[in-house]
Amino acid sequence: MRQDFDAIIIGAGQAGPSLAGRLTQAGWTVAMVERKLFGGTCVNVGCTPTKAMVASAHAAHIARRGSDFGVVRKEPVVVDMKQVLARKNAIVMKSRTGVEGWLRGMERCTVFTGAARFESPKEIRVGDQVLYAKNIFLNVGARPSIPDMPGVREVPFLTSTTILDLEELPKHLIVVGGSYVGLEFAQMYRRFGAEVTVVERKSRLIPNEDEDLSSAVQEILQSEGIQLRLDANCIRLENDGGEVAVGLDCLEGHPQVVGSRILLAAGRRPNTDDLGLTAAGVKANEHGYITVDDQLQTSVPGIWAIGDCNGRGAFTHTSYNDFEIVADNLLDKASRRVSDRIPVSALYIDPPLAQVGLTETQVRQSGRAALIGTRPMTKIGRAVEKGETQGFMKVLVDAENKKILGAAILGTGGDEAIHCILSTMYAGAPYTTLSHAVHIHPTVSELIPTMLQSIKPLDTSVK
Ligand SMILES: Cc1cc2nc3c(=O)[nH]c(=O)nc-3n(C[C@H](O)[C@H](O)[C@H](O)COP(=O)(O)OP(=O)(O)OC[C@H]3O[C@@H](n4cnc5c(N)ncnc54)[C@H](O)[C@@H]3O)c2cc1C
Ligand SMILES: NC(=O)c1ccc[n+]([C@@H]2O[C@H](COP(=O)([O-])OP(=O)(O)OC[C@H]3O[C@@H](n4cnc5c(N)ncnc54)[C@H](O)[C@@H]3O)[C@@H](O)[C@H]2O)c1
């Protein structure tokens, strides 16, 4: 028998549960469908577990550096992976059960567990049940993509999901992919005590970021003993006796890296292939990302796509912002748009790399007249006092209207400090609002006004 609701939400990730909360508060009846773990990627196999493990890795790193701070250590640092995992699991479980309990206790919300699939533009099948609603919200997220490289069907490999359950420390972890997922795990496992090699097919790590940031990140990772194989072509997985290996053609170095485990960290793909999109007439692009307009409506009226599956963001904060846009537009008659969002993100290596707005490369390519300011972390008192002076910060300003175009902070506390720049940008204020503001001493943020006071013309002839 068909069950009718005002709305069906597919996926209890970073947007779905909050949307269920807003809609039910407004009096709507909601069917929430989740096929696996409540809280989705971020809570279960993304942000929460990785940042919990990054914290364990940081503790090991600081313990090893004890003598830099006058702390005497008589024994070598030993990391107990079982305890690291137990701590991580406890944090994850609390969050997951919190989301599930919230949804199950929500008035006017009915939770269905199982895989949802379109039967028609207004009907969804979950097992042997058919749900009907005039409004359907897709929050189905993404999963690790497995590149179709030679050997991938014969050689065992880990993904960002399966590595989270690895109880033993691999002697040598080979990470394929040198971006967000790959670098967070690479540094974490190096600090846990593994040998680590990162294999990246482009000529530099985090290839989408500015070159100076790539070089500085590379230097930080190499200083901890992480091996890099860049410009790696023809990557293939191989069994090598009891070991695993990655074969590659790099511009230099041995054509094979032998290790004990391989982590594939080469991007993600949306969970849209088994949703039955064609039964509803919902359009997706060639990579499976659902096509949406600036207010997250799909090609079919009454169906929205929010979070990673629409390809307009790939972060928890962008998924949550999608929820806010859709909810405010539907319930408060607002006209919020995705294009109002200022890009912002942090790569959680240590120290973190936080970025907002345009990169320096994008500013150069835009051809507009701009100003740039930079500051090494060695010149920031707080960083010196903490003994964490790696990295630098930079900011770009529009030379005509004096508004901040973008900024990056690679350094201790950068993920927090970037927010004063972000808020100034949202306020639409000129950079002088921030450069005249008095900040707390001693903080990393206090050097942002100082950096802004010394901005100089950017040479845009260099693209
Ligand atoms: C290792 C790693 C670390 C990360 N760290 C960060 C970080 O530090 N900061 C950050 O901002 N982002 C981080 N991310 C990205 C972040 O996790 C995602 O951007 C975010 O979770 C996307 O949320 P979402 O709501 O779009 O989808 P998801 O959280 O992926 O949720 C989608 C849900 O839909 C369910 N689902 C899918 N298909 C169906 C179906 N047919 N029927 C029913 N249910 C279905 C899934 O089971 C899942 O629960 C990380 C990602 C990874 C992999
Ligand atoms: N701190 C965070 O916010 C955080 C952390 C982890 C993941 N994430 C999200 O997850 C997304 C996915 O991260 P990701 O690092 O898996 O993907 P990505 O797309 O950001 O990077 C993939 C990397 O792998 C390389 N690559 C691709 N195919 C390859 C191949 N065959 N051989 C060698 N290298 C190859 C690419 O050049 C690139 O450097 C990110 O875009 C981000 O949005 C966010």
Task: Summarize the helices and strands and which ones pair or pack.
Layout: E1 2-10, H1 16-25, E2 30-34, H2 40-45, H3 47-64, H4 81-104, E3 109-113, E4 116-120, E5 123-126, E6 129-138, E7 142-144, E8 172-176, H5 180-192, E9 195-199, H6 211-223, E10 227-229, E11 233-240, E12 243-249, E13 256-259, E14 261-264, E15 268-270, H7 277-280, E16 303-305, H8 316-331, E17 344-347, E18 353-357, H9 360-366, E19 370-376, H10 381-386, E20 392-398, E21 404-410, H11 414-427, H12 431-435, H13 447-453, E22 456-457
Parallel strand pairs: 1-2, 1-6, 2-3, 6-16, 8-9, 8-14, 9-10
Antiparallel strand pairs: 4-5, 5-6, 7-15, 11-12, 12-13, 17-18, 18-21, 19-20, 19-22, 20-21
Helix pairs in contact: 1-8, 3-4, 3-5
Bound molecules: flavin-adenine dinucleotide (FAD) and nicotinamide-adenine-dinucleotide.
Flavin-adenine dinucleotide is lined by residues 10-15, 33-37, 40-42, 46-47, 50-51, 115-116, 139-142, 160, 181, 271, 275, 307-308, 314-317, 319, 348.
Describe the protein's architecture and organization.
The structure is a single chain. The model has no long low-confidence stretch (mean pLDDT 97). The protein has 13 helices and 22 strands. The chain is of the alpha/beta class and 463 residues long. The protein has helices at 16-25, 40-45, 47-64, 81-104, 180-192, 211-223, 277-280, 316-331, 360-366, 381-386, 414-427, 431-435, 447-453, and strands spanning 2-10, 30-34, 109-113, 116-120, 123-126, 129-138, 142-144, 172-176, 195-199, 227-229, 233-240, 243-249, 256-259, 261-264, 268-270, 303-305, 344-347, 353-357, 370-376, 392-398, 404-410, 456-457. The protein starts with a strand and ends in a 6-residue tail after the last strand. Helix 1 (16-25) packs parallel to helix 8 (316-331), helix 3 runs antiparallel to helix 4 (81-104) and helix 3 (47-64) runs parallel beside helix 5. The chain is globular. Residues 147, 149, 176-182, 184, 199-202, 207, 232, 235, 265-268, 314-315, 345-348 line the site of nicotinamide-adenine-dinucleotide.
